Amino acid sequence: MNEIVIKQATKKDAVLIADLSRQTFYDTFAMHNTKADMDKFMNLQFTRQKLMSEVGAAGNIFLLAYVNNDVVGYVRLCEKAHSFLPHAPAMEIARIYAVQKDIGKGVGSALMQHCIDISKACNKSVLWLGVWEKNQRAIDFYKKWQFEKFGEHEFVLGDDVQIDWLMKRVIG
Predict the structure, then answer these.
(1) d(Cα 23, Cα 21) in Å, to the nearest integer?
(2) Which of 6, 46, 106, 107 is 20–30 Å from 116 (CA)?
């Protein structure tokens, strides 16, 4: 794979990010969930318009990963603490995805390193995220990056109540 270039997104990238968000989410989870639950989630909670409104909103940082001029992944960082981490200046990785054909080619690692660098630059001491308890590939990736489980919360996908692990990494 050629060099992965990470760029901070702007409001001009809102359509691209919304479409990429919906496609990568669907590609990742459709095979593990019912069509009815996926349709309900995508059409009510994860709409193109809602995703577009996140880009450029206060507290959100979006990064896009490119190889040549092709988008191969993205991340959404939020300057948001968690109630389980009340005294730690924290940043959340709300979403981090590579496009299906580029999983395992270093896209996630390039994005993760930028998340860590941005968190440090923003004087955060903890980087945290939620990950579906059944997404072992992602859990293994986060563990490789020194994230540890610190709690759980419910995530509703359509009508299905699922459990997400909350994982954190101390930035130092």
Answers:
(1) 6
(2) 46
Q: Are 148 and 169 in contact (CB under 8 A)?
A: yes
CA distances (Å), origin 120, targets 54, 82, 117, 169: 23, 18, 5, 12
Tokens representing residue 127 in the block: 């980087």
Listed residue (102, 86, 101, 114) closest to 5, CA to CA: 114
Tens digits of per-residue pLDDT, 70-105? 999 999 999 876 677 767 899 999 999 999 999 989
Q: How far apart, in whole angstroms, are the C-alpha atoms of residue 47 and residue 71?
A: 20
CATH topology of domain 4-170: Aminopeptidase (3.40.630)
**Cβ contacts of 37 within 8 Å, gap of 6 or more:** 157, 158, 159, 160
**Alpha carbon distance 20, 149 (integer Å):** 28
Distance CA 53, CA 58 (A): 11
List the domain boundaries for the chain.
4-170
| Max Cα–Cα distance, the chain, nearest Å | 43
